Amino acid sequence: MITVEATGPLALLEDLGRPQCAHLGVSPSGAADRSALRLANRLVGNAEGAAAIETTFGGLVVVADELVWVAVTGAPTQVTVAGTPTASHTALPLHPGERLAIEAPPEGVRNYLAVRGGIEVPAILGSRSSDVLSGLGPEPLRSAARLPIGQPRGRLPDVDQAPTVQPVKDLALWPGPRSDWFTASARDRLLTDSWMVTPDCDRVAVRLEGSPLDQRHSDELPSEGLLRGAIQVPSSGQPLIFLSDHPVTGGYPVIGILSDRACDDAAQLRPGDSIRFRPATRPGSDR
């Protein structure tokens, strides 16, 4: 067991989500930054999709009830164990009674705390992920929550420390299914202009501000399926990037879709960040 002493602004349990449930009207959900979740789990010898804690803007404090191995990944940040500063992106022993604290990252938004064995709360529709849009899955963590830990399998990897990655603000995208609904100028400006991240962002979407993107059509678009990373443009002309807890359908045209890695990068954007888009090249090759 580990016990949560403080949660910071938001702390959730997340794994790799429910990717097979869209036909039920259920969003995939899962970790907002999947690369960071996978890395945290690998560092402590878990399966990549084991449930871990996703914390937003730091403030998480946990206490070990027994000896556990943990790893913190995501945005570069300061981690302390028993009051002593230590490194993130490495496996750390946490002895009984010791406190681990994650400070707010100076850049980026989210960190992941994986515990060797994984966090073993009951799964709902095959996942232990919290979905903030639908309310499906475990509730946001609260102070004094006690989290059961699963049985470790295999051995700890022979890795001293994984490299930290600074937040990326140059996002690779593919043309969207409705890019032809926009003027040529709008399609060009999507790639050439800078876009500001607004305060109106969460696990559902990152909303951007810039010169409005003009549409060629005034027709109403029937609702269509949405994906994580879809860049939808409502009637205001201001694009938004859908993240893990996106709705399964939407009625505005999608001008582009981020690469998988760029979706993870988008999950680390914070209000006030200035970003740019660039064309993706080939699957699996783009940040």
How would you describe this protein?
The protein has two domains: 2-147, Sandwich (Jelly Rolls), CATH 2.60.120; 170-279, Beta Barrel (Cyclophilin). The longest helix is centred in the first third of the chain and has 10 residues, at 34-43. It starts with a strand and ends in an 8-residue tail after the last strand. The model has no long low-confidence stretch (mean pLDDT 93). The chain is mainly β and 287 residues long. It contains three helices and 20 strands. It is 9% helix and 31% strand.
Q: Which features would summarize this protein structure in a list?
A:
six-stranded antiparallel sheet, mainly beta, single chain, Jelly Rolls, 287 residues, 2 domains
CATH topology type of the largest domain? Jelly Rolls
Number of helices: 3
Question: What's the level 1 CATH class of the largest domain?
Answer: Mainly Beta
What is the H-and-E element order? Answer: EEHEEEEEEEEEEHEEEEEEEHE
Shape: elongated
Radius of gyration: 19 Å
CATH architectural category of the largest domain: Sandwich
Domains (count):
2
Low-confidence stretches: none
Percent range for β-strand residues: 25-35%
